[in-house]
Amino acid sequence: MLSERTSKMDTMDNLEKQLICPICLEMFTKPVVILPCQHNLCRKCANDVFQASNPYLPTRGGSLTSGGRFRCPSCRHEVVLDRHGVYGLQRNLLVENIIDMFKQESSSSKPAPERKEEMPMCDVHEEEKINIYCVTHGVPTCSMCKVFGAHKDCEVAPITSIYQSKKTELSDGIAMMVGNNDRMQGIVSQLEEACRAIEENGRRQKTLVCERFDQLYSILEGKKREMSQKVTAEQDEKVNYIRGLTRKYGDHLEESCKMVELGIQTMEEPEMALFLQNTKPLLKKLAEASSTAHLDKVERGYENMDHYTADFKKESLALRGLDFLQDDEDDDEEDEDGEAGTEEGEGAQTVSGGSAVTAASVQPSAPQQSNSSPSAAKSAASS
Q: Cystine design at 275: which of 40, 62, 89, 269 (Cβ 3.0–4.6 Å)?
């Protein structure tokens, strides 16, 4: 049953192709005229072709009233008309009856006829529908433009076939664009993710850099405190020694002043015998009081503290040269990190560009007297 129906539909399609007018490319519209060459045309289409071929002949009511000639659009055979024009051509009643039968059969086989949409009209031939496609120029046009218009030498095709091909092409283009949009959206998402990753990595690296500098600050602060304590210790030691020596010299001075007063009183003694008795022990005391051999003497330059001199020029240059590690230095610095194993070395190598910067180990330079301590001063004074 299904095969019979399919065969019937194929027969109807083949019959419809035989009932297509070569001018309007639609089914013949009655009345249908037959040309001497046995080709059929709609009378309206034949009249349009006749008028286009004979533009200077007089017309009445839109039809030529005198004889003329035109060529068959199918075989290019010259058709000569009498004074009746296209109305003198014989009607093909057989074709008209076949058209009626075809339409009746089509309406019975099709349960719901489709409503045709209004077709656009040709701009040049305002009464002609656009029903063919000019392949040469790539534009839709009407059959009259093909017969004697601007597209008479062009390659044309049925508008339905071009419609299907262009629709397929447009569908493929839309699908391709949708795929491209999906890829672009993926790229945008990747870029946004990369932006967030860059911001996060930047914050993390800035935190690490700040930590490394804080380590350097702590190392410098500790070294400064250590060196300052050394200077403060020697300063306190020397100051205490000098103050103690000052008290001893003050006591000796007070004793000498007392001896001077006693000597002056003895000089005022009028009795010579009594004067001579007091003079001998007084002279002995004066001699002892005038002697300072038992007091320590401060050596020259003892107050000098220049031996605690620190020169940080080299370290300053190294600090000014702090930079991030280069790619070719990463491996070397990692090896040094493994060997060092100390927090101080790790902080300096991470921040500096290959040069570890720490506070300098400054040792005091030898002063004029290498061992200038209070005990040494005492021994020198006693000697």
A: 269
**Close Cβ partners of 297 (under 8 Å, ≥ 6 residues apart):** 377, 380, 381
Euclidean distance between CA atoms 284 and 266, whole angstroms: 14
Indicate the DSSP class of residue 20.
B
Q: Which residues contact 5 (CB under 8 A, 6 or more apart)?
A: none
Residue 35 and residue 79 in contact, taking contact as beta carbons nearer than 8 Å: yes
In the beta sheet, which residues pair with residue 64?
A: 59
Three-state secondary structure along 111-155?
CCCCCCCCCCECCCCCCCECCEEECCCCEEECHHHHHHCCCCCCC
- pLDDT of the residue at 227: 92
For residues 169, 173, 176, 181, the Cα torsion angle rounded to the nearest 10 degrees is -160
Query: pLDDT of 293-317, one tens digit each?
Result: 778 888 888 888 888 888 889 989 9
